[in-house]
Design goal:
13 helices; mainly alpha; MetI-like_sf; about 280 residues; about 75% helix; globular
């Protein structure tokens, strides 16, 4: 096989992309390195490496010693996994119905889905909180109720995006496969579960990953719905840094504890994110 030659224009693009990647990655590395240094050293020399006497685990000891970090991780994972799974199922069925079926009000529903992406969570949090309060699932010592109160608004907030992405992908699937399954005696739920979902796996993976990440990083909803030992990881570490004031070492450790799990998830699942987004864009 002949090796493709790298043209000067392509080389220039690669150089620019490499520089852009460096400017994106370096702040994360800088924060992680400073999390292993004392706050006084950070103030005087924030760009030095945490080697020798500069290296310290005090920031992490303070974070883990004063707060239930593992419990907060547990709460965040329960919320985020629940949000991702529910969004995958509900958005998948909604997208399939909007793409394959014709019914009264279909255009209106499509427009409402698009409109749902335009409203920020800040605009709806007060009526949502009042609704949750009437249901009795906020300001309660029962953990599962508080986690449910946090998950429900996040599920609703991710639905529009998920339906749009999945609709674009399902439109490109051949209808003949569904017709063949129907002729074999499969009902609508069997067609969706055994035909649509396997064929749309990249798009469903994209929706699940983004829903998980957005839920995990959602500090705003957690601030309203969770209290005390019910905190998720972002809410807990935000509370810790607010108590300690301008302790830059502790802030760096808190950011690291929040970001590192997300980076791990993205590194292992990035191929699904890229494949799902590009495939959905092409098919849509």
């Amino acid at each position: 096989m002949k090796k493709k030659k790298l043209h000067p224009g392509q080389a220039g693009i690669f150089v620019l992309l490499s520089l852009w990647a460096l400017t994106t990655i370096y702040p994360i590395i800088w924060v992680v390195l400073n999390s292993f240094k004392d706050k006084k050293i950070i103030v005087s020399d924030s760009f030095s490496l945490p080697l020798g006497e500069r290296f310290s685990m005090d920031n992490y000891r303070l974070a883990f010693g004063r707060l239930d970090v593992f419990g907060a991780y547990r709460n965040s994972l329960i919320i985020s996994i629940t949000v991702a799974l529910v969004v995958i199922v509900l958005a998948g069925m909604a997208a399939y119905a909007l793409v394959r079926y014709t019914f009264l009000g279909k255009n209106l529903l499509n427009n409402l889905v698009i409109a749902g992406m335009m409203f920020p969570v800040f605009a709806t949090i007060i009526p949502v909180f009042q609704l949750m309060a009437r249901w009795g699932i906020v300001n309660t010592p029962v953990l599962w109720k508080s986690l449910l109160a946090t998950a429900l608004p996040q599920i609703a907030g991710n639905m529009s995006f998920a339906i749009v992405v999945l609709s674009g992908y399902i439109k490109g699937l051949p209808v003949e496969l569904e017709e063949a399954a129907y002729m074999e005696g499969a009902n609508i739920f069997q067609i969706f579960g055994k035909v649509i979902m396997p064929l749309s796996k990249p798009s469903f993976a994209t929706v699940g990953i983004f829903s998980f990440l957005w839920s995990y990083n959602d500090l705003f909803t957690q601030t309203f719905m969770l209290r005390g030992n019910q905190y998720g990881i972002t809410r807990l570490l935000n509370e810790l840094t607010s108590r300690e004031g301008t302790n830059y070492g502790l802030m760096a450790a808190a950011v690291t504890l929040v970001v590192i799990p997300i980076l791990i998830v993205y590194i292992f699942l990035q191929k699904y994110i890229i494949k799902g987004m590009t495939a959905g864009a092409i098919k849509g």
